[in-house]
Amino acid sequence: MDTDELDPWSATTAELYRTLRARLDGDDPAVLATIVDVDGSAYRRQGAKMIVVPGDDSYGSITAGCLEGPVVDLANAVLDEGRARVETFDLMNGDEWGLGLGCNGVIDILLEPLDNNFGVALDALANDQPVTVLTAVESSDGNVTVGDRTVLDSDLSSLGDADRNRLPSELVSNESDVVESLRESASSKAVQLETSAGTVSVFVDHLEPVPELLLFGNQNDVHPVARIGREAGFRVVVASSRGSRSDGSDFPYATRVVSTHPTEIDEAVRAPENTYAVLMSHNFLDDRLALETLLEGTSVPYVGLMGPRKRFEEMQTEFEQEGVQLSQSQLERVSTPVGLDLGSDEPIQIALSIVSETLAVHNDRNGGRLKCREGPIHERVTTP
């Protein structure tokens, strides 16, 4: 499924990465717009991205839609100038941009021509490796200009500086504590740093690989889960029992389709800590074997199991009869009945329930109602 088949405004991070890679490979110009700072409330937070291509086309969202027009106009100017810039939008002043918004936030947006420097980050992400992108967004130091960048891998080693000036080593070394802090919270934030020749504001953008949703099964109910999972931003992998449907064309929303035995399903897991599995073969023995394999052979944080509680209790009984004792930590990774309580039994709504729970686990949330949550919706990022 191509990005063009989706609503461009609601493109997920996974679709944005695919679009960026395609444009780099095709040597097609584009501008990447990234929120680098938010003062107050906003629809999206630091790190949200949008791609603008020549003309008026864009992919992704950085606001609820109110700023996309002005950002597209600015992006076209950036393409003409060929250099990065930062623009501030004061949404508390409803008349400043002629939009009458009256929102409660001030947003700084970095607009930069797409080049191979960001391709270095994309390559690492495609290999399931997190990266941290350090970009100068404001500078009074004559040796540093807006857009200068260093990309760091998980060991804080530079991944290269193709097509872009690298940040001074003193800035990078001074940010090690900040990088580690943001990496732990998978967050992004602009920080002010002093150099021997002035002050530089550096946007520390931590990027995680796209999470995978592993679906074990080949019945019709796999399709709505795969569809919603893809549209929610997961890379969907369908693992079909050998001898069953396992052709990619049978599962158009899947990124990968593999044929496997339930005792070998762990071989379909590329990045365990970033994979979320749902067992839905509707075959008791296959699901039980797949469950045991994932719990004992991988560190996947979530295994959703279709069916009622009694079905899982019967599996546990068989485990015990075979001398297999699941630990408390293993049991905590199992979710059955799978999904959030949305009160519906229609296939598409069951799929929504399953993907919603998976997304909540991925984001370390419990899936409760926002009206019952105390404090801000989005966590406020703090750094050393």
From TrEMBL:
Highest taxon in the source lineage: Archaea
Ranges of residues in domain XdhC Rossmann: 213-357
Listed Gene3D superfamilies: NAD(P)-binding Rossmann-like Domain
Domain XdhC- CoxI: 27-90
PANTHER family: ALDEHYDE OXIDOREDUCTASE MOLYBDENUM COFACTOR ASSEMBLY PROTEIN, XANTHINE DEHYDROGENASE SUBUNIT A-RELATED
UniProt name for this protein: XdhC/CoxI family protein
